[in-house]
Design brief:
alpha/beta; binds flavin mononucleotide; 6 helices; 6-stranded parallel sheet; Rossmann fold; 192 residues; 37% helix; 6 strands
């Protein structure tokens, strides 16, 4: 099964979550591509830690996602920062660039899963996930849930993973997100 992960990330949090997905899918023996949507206005903030700059440099080195990259995928994952309870404009621009793919029904029947990063727990990360799933529905894809039984004892959102950054630049992925990604990939690889 070929997996394509498409993200937008500015401060690296969505990127680190995506990287954890990529690593877990590789462990599960899947072929995985990790791509970043175009973001021409991105600029690096001064005074970041060495670790944060390392994360951003790896993020910036990702290949740019194009609509045709989705065509050979069996499963597509999309991850976005939460901007005002929605996906970022850059992620939306990528979605809108797939109009031709939509018109030809080229994503119909593919599997889909979503993840988001949000500054805070009341910040609408679930709305960002819902926007990603709405896109999947319009494309005719099958949306994966994240069943609460996937990781007993953890609070998870049934629409996917929300990573909380507190608005900070990413240095390492927090332990909870890492655990939930592992469990979610196990679910996606074995049950979906
Ligand atoms: C324009 C803008 C809008 C944002 N809106 C929200 C929001 O509605 N809710 C929230 O929790 N965080 C919001 N944030 C914070 C980001 O979602 C958060 O910092 C996220 O971790 C960034 O992901 P990234 O590190 O992958 O870029 C916003 C940030 C920006 C720049």
């Amino acid at each position: 099964m070929k997996i394509v992960i498409v993200i937008h990330s500015v401060c690296g949090n969505t990127y680190l979550t995506a990287k954890a997905f990529q690593e877990e899918f590789l462990k599960a023996g899947r072929e995985v591509s990790l791509l970043r949507v175009a973001d021409p206005s991105w600029t690096e903030k001064p005074d970041l830690s060495d670790k944060a700059r390392e994360v951003l440099s790896a993020m910036r080195a990702l290949p740019e996602a194009k609509p045709n990259d989705l065509l050979n995928a069996d499963m597509i994952l999309m991850g976005s920062p939460t901007y005002f309870g929605n996906v970022s404009a850059q992620m939306k621009a990528f979605m809108d660039s797939t109009g031709g793919v939509w018109f030809k029904g080229q994503l119909v029947g593919k599997k889909f899963a979503a993840f988001a990063s949000a500054g805070n727990t009341e910040g609408g990360g679930d709305l960002c996930l819902a926007a990603l799933h709405t896109y999947a529905k319009y494309m005719g894809m099958f949306s994966a849930p994240l069943p609460v039984t996937t990781l007993p004892g953890e609070n998870v959102n049934s629409l996917g993973i929300i990573q909380y950054s507190n608005g900070k630049y990413a240095e390492t992925l927090d332990a909870k997100t890492s655990r939930v990604v592992t469990a979610f990939v196990h679910f996606l690889a074995t049950r979906f």
